[in-house]
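Narrative summary of target 7.
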Amino acid sequence: MYQVRFDWGLTGAAAIAEGADAIVWVDELGEQQELPDVTAAVVAGGIANSAAVADWVIAKQAERGDRFRIAVVAAGEPRGDGSLRFAVEDLLGAGAVIDALTAVGIDHNSPEAAAASAAYEGLRRAVKHLVGASVSARELGGVHPDFTPSTDVTVLRGFSD
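Modeled conformation, tokenized:
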């Protein structure tokens, strides 16, 4: 089993949650109010706090004394018909988290996680523009993203720090 896996939305979270110690829920624009219904801890992650999330995972792995498995889930944009629209901002946020995990040595990534990381890495210089120009940002009336690095890791469900 891969140490880092990646999928989309609530259905994707349910699909990759088995065996995961934590879900990193990525919702860059904060549109998705519902959280995955999983037994694993759920933390908020994204571009601004990607390094902090990676440090949090390393600390949890050290506490455990064994491999800590992470499922990174891009929230996406739920549609009225129950389907999920691709949201580039969430892909890039998930990629940033996976890239940060790789930087601290957690790099046994699924192919899906590797692809999300590569998308972020390849587009790193344009991330602010891409997120601000995304369909979701335009639907919100224009968003001016601030990716100032943050040391905050918000535990949405599960572990408490």
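The first strand starts at residue 4 and ends at 8.
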